[in-house]
């Protein structure tokens, strides 16, 4: 009789299934590691010009995307009242998390306010034109004040990066348009730095 008389395909399938089940715990153990790696990639500090880097020992606390407008008013220049120019007034933008959920807003100050009531107000420390000549510059801002308890409580520095749009119009501002206001669409990423508690 041949050596495979007692061979049972069902037994072989069962063994394969059992081997797969034995592997399952090992695969499951890797899931938290893979999730952590994915999260760390999203929260990685971007490569920016040296003058825009947050000072140590500050670390990246959060990164939000902004979608809104930069507001400009047509006014006489300070040096020559007969000449007119677009003067920046303020931003108005929604702040969104990685899922696209609106979790705050950005407005005059410049101020960033989270839905939890916490706020941070900043002052420009450094700027860089960035890679897009048609976009507003990249910025590093120092927090001048924070209020409330929440997302922005620990913020000490803010970066504005990856900007698109938002620049003042090249024309359309003269004496006949004095007082005119324009709202220019822009997008940007805002990164908040501070010391974790």
Question: What can you see in these coordinates?
Answer:
The chain is an alpha+beta fold. The chain folds into 2 domains: 1-42; 50-194, no CATH class. The protein is 17% helix and 44% strand. It contains 1 helix and 8 strands. It has one helix spanning 9-42; strands at residues 59-76, 84-96, 102-107, 111-114, 119-128, 138-147, 155-165, 181-194. Strands 1-2-3-4-5-6-7-8 form an 8-stranded antiparallel β-barrel. Strand 4 (111-114) and strand 5 (119-128) form a beta hairpin. The N and C termini lie far apart (76 Å). Residues 1-42 have low confidence and may be disordered.
Write a brief caption for the model.
By secondary structure, the protein is of the alpha+beta class. The protein has one helix spanning 9-42, and strands at residues 59-76, 84-96, 102-107, 111-114, 119-128, 138-147, 155-165, 181-194.
If you average the pLDDT, what whole number results? 85
Shape: elongated
Strand content: 35-45%
Class from secondary-structure proportions: alpha+beta
| Distance N to C terminus | 76 Å
Percentage of residues assigned to helices: 10-25%
Lateral arrangement of strands in the main beta sheet: 1-2-3-4-5-6-7-8
Oligomer: single chain
> Number of domains in the coordinates?
2
Largest sheet: 8 strands, antiparallel, barrel
């Amino acid at each position: 009789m041949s050596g495979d008389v007692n061979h049972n395909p069902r037994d072989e399938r069962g063994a394969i299934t059992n081997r797969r089940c034995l592997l399952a715990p090992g695969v499951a153990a890797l899931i938290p590691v893979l999730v952590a790696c994915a999260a760390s990639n999203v929260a990685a500090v971007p490569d920016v010009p040296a003058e825009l880097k947050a000072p140590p020992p500050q670390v990246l606390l959060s990164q939000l995307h902004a979608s809104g407008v930069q507001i400009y008013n047509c006014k006489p220049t300070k040096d020559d009242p007969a000449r007119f120019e677009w003067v920046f007034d303020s931003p108005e933008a929604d702040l969104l998390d990685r899922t696209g959920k609106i979790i705050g807003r950005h407005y005059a100050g410049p101020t960033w306010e989270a839905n939890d009531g916490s706020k941070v107000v900043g002052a420009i420390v450094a700027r860089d034109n960035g890679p897009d000549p048609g976009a507003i510059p990249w910025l590093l801002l120092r927090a001048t004040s924070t209020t409330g308890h929440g997302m922005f409580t620990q913020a000490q520095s803010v970066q504005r990066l990856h900007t698109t749009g938002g620049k003042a119009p090249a024309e359309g501002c003269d004496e006949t348009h004095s007082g005119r206001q324009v709202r220019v669409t822009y997008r940007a990423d805002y990164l908040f730095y501070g010391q974790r508690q």
